[in-house]
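[stage:ingest] chain + small molecule (uracil)
[stage:ingest] validated
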Amino acid sequence: MSLSVRQRRILADMGIPVWRSRIAPAVSDVAAAAPLAEHEAAASATDDTRASIALLDWDALQAQVRTCTACTELARERTQTVFGVGDRGARWLFVGEAPGAEEDRRGEPFVGRAGQLLDNMLAALGLDRTRDVFIANVLKCRPPGNRDPKPEEARACRSFLDRQIDLIQPEVIVALGRIAAQGLLESGEPLGRLRGSEHRYQGVPLIATYHPAYLLRKPGDKARAWQDLQRARACLRT
Ligand code: URA
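[stage:predict] done
[stage:export] C-alpha cells:
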C-alpha cells in the first residue's frame, strides 16, 4: 500500500512505524472456545421477534431499533438509540461495545475522544467513516454510567446487529475491545488471546483488536492495534 503524507503523519502521531507486512491469518477454532455462562434471558427477544427482524430492510430495521425497549433499563434511560453509521455496502464493519454519553446525545457511534482516534486509525488505512466502513455497536443503547453491557442486554440487541451484518455483507468485521470480541465470539477468552488470529462471525472473517478508549489510556499498544488492522485488511477479497 502506498501511504499519503496525511496517512504517514497520522501513523507517526499514533507512534506506529510504517512498515509493510502481510500477516498470514490463522483461523482459530472458535467453536472450541469456552462459551459464556448462560443467564436468564429476561430481556431477550423471542424467537419470533428474531425471525421477523431477520426479514427487515434497512429502513424498517432502523425504525424497529428506534422504538425497541427489549433492554428495559437502557431503553428507559437513553436519550436515543444509536443505530450505526456509514456505508451500507461497506467492505469493513467495525463493532464497538455500546454508545457512551456523547454518542447517546448525538445518535452516532464513536463521536467522542475514542471516536476521534478511531477516525485517525481509519484514515491511516485510507478509510473514511462516511464512505468506506460501517460502524456499529453490540448495544444500540447506552448503559447507564457507562457500565459494561449485561449478557441479557447484548442478547436482546443481537438480532439487530446480525441483521445489519446480513444487509451489509462486509468482507471483514473488526471487533473493537474485549466486550465486542467476547460478545460476538461467545467466548470468555481474554482479548489478548482473541487478538492475533482470524475468527468467523456469521461466516465473515472477524479480527479482534483494542478498543480506541483503551488505546487513549495505553498509547504504547497502538502499534499492536495497527498490526490487527493490517491483519483485517488481509481478509479483504482481492
Ligand atoms: N465506545 C464504544 O464502544 N462505542 C461507541 O459508540 C463509543 C464509545
